[in-house]
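QA checklist item 7 of 12: single-chain prediction sanity check.
[x] sequence parsed
[x] length recorded as 63
[x] structure emitted
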Amino acid sequence: MSLQCPHLTEPDHVRITIDGPDTDTVLAMAHSLGGFYDATGPSTPRPIPSEEGRRTWLYAKLP
């Protein structure tokens, strides 16, 4: 597996990808997860290639 984000090589750091039917849904889930972990805000939701729906991601550090 190749990591494009150098900070993900640090212990306890993860990227969380969220796919859902629409922008509001993926953002709501991202903000919900951000409340449990030391996390960045979500990325701008984007279309999912070759599928319906939207995708966003955030980066988090485990407690």
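[x] summary fact logged: The helical segments are 23-34.
[ ] second reviewer sign-off
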